Amino acid sequence: MATILDGKAHADRMLESVRLGVEDRKAKGLRAPGLAVVLVGDDPASHVYVRNKSAACAKVGITSIEHRLNADTPQAVLDALIDRLNADSEVDGILVQLPLPKGLDSKEALHRISPAKDVDGFHPMNQGLLLEGLPGLRPCTPSACMSLLAHHGVDLKGLRAVVLGRSEIVGKPMALMLLEQHATVTIAHSRTKDLPGVCREADLLVAAVGRPGLVEGSWIKPGAVVVDVGINRIEDPALGQRIFAAEPRKLETLRSKGAVLCGDVRFGEAMLVASAVTPVPGGVGPLTIAGLLTNALMAANA
Ligand code: NAD
Is the pTM of this model over 0.90? Predict the structure, then answer.
């Protein structure tokens, strides 16, 4: 049986380190880091994320300042708010919660954030620094995954790593960070031929696709480390039957509650083949906020 890589426990370690960093600033007479969160519209999932972010800020002593705008806010108003936050000396980090409502250009908004305050690490300047292997604010989910792997002593040097998914938020930056640590990296995606065969070559498999249970146990090399970034909510009992064959408890939750969260990897099958696996929920999910607050502290200290 594989080891379960506990993301919640690692997120708590990361948050404790941020809390100590904030205390350290206060001991030096500096103010708490300030994180501005811009939430446009009323997407229920975004509201939950923003609430969780604010709660995590409160725990570690970061001042969180929420800015809520209506869904029909014009781009110019959003841009003007970002300009104001860029100029505000009390604000160290700016986060624009995605997705933005239709009619707003998320690239334009993200590119407008000052690179020094870009705690999501999505600005082209910070992406360029990552590409060059230079320090900068890096995307939270992949950098927190790297921190989890380091904590568990996964030696990436020379390892064959496959990253499934090529998004700018997870797949591409994850691949660059693994490359920086001397892994031999393949990025696989929706057009990759023989996906199972490519995955089977991986000593480290990172799945960031958003397809429930895509990765079967037979796609995993025996002894591989598996990081499952996907978070999928499924309600379809037939899909559940197919992907939870080795996870009766998930199937039971789906039956009793009508929905269940799962990753891109069939966790029960992976546990029988891999050496270590992140669960969903409780794996990569909690790490992202910890990565964000780590970035907020870094931006304040820069
Ligand atoms: P995205 O939709 O931007 O990118 C998905 C990628 O998967 C694309 O590059 C696409 O080429 C690839 N893909 C799609 N279908 C595929 C298939 N059948 N076979 C192979 N590749 C395929 O998604 P994203 O923003 O990178 O997020 C991916 C998943 O990770 C989602 O489930 C998302 O909810 C989750 N996520 C979790 C966290 C977290 O905190 N744990 C953070 C970000 C994203």
Answer: yes
